[in-house]
Amino acid sequence: MQTVFRNHSILIRPFSTNDGPGLCSAARESIAELCAWMTWCSPTYSVAEATAFVAQAGRDWESGMRYCFAIAEAASGTLLGSIGLTQINQTHQFANVGVWVRTTRTSQGIATEATRMLVRFAFEELRLRRLEFVVAAANLPSVRAVEKIGAKREGVLRQRLSLAGEVHDAFLYALVA
Predict the structure, then answer these.
(1) pTM reported for the whole predicted model
(2) Concatenated DSSP letters for 64-100?
(3) Whole-number mean pLDDT of the chain?
(4) What is the gyration radius of the CA atoms in the chain, in angstroms?
(5) Strand ranges, E, within 22-66
């Protein structure tokens, strides 16, 4: 199974045991944006939390429960964010996709390229048939990014997400193999 995908500027790869500090740095830079839209984020996100996530990501990868990738700059290896497949349903061959990119590197096509790489992994390596994206309706940058990769909006999920103490409607997007 190929687990590293790259183009001229970025790569996605499984997290390594020493990625905790870099992941924490990327998340801390992006706290305002992440805490608005990601349930795992808190204003005090720490190296210990990032290191625990990296360790759990490795265990989840081995069990096939979840596949989390670091998004990194191809030339320097600097961590730019994370992308992953969660809520994998082997019976019906679908999974949920989540992605984020550090604030100083947004609007550069990184999430789009990383998602294209993840889609290849999901469809070619894991043989999934469907990928779902549940995006808060108010998260316009994520809505644009999902639409840019060609995912189709399939509906509005009313009161689907609880984020930062508020209930949000979400859009359900999907890509099929």
Answers:
(1) 0.90
(2) TS-EEEEEEETTT--EEEEEEEEEEETTTTEEEEEEE
(3) 90
(4) 15
(5) none
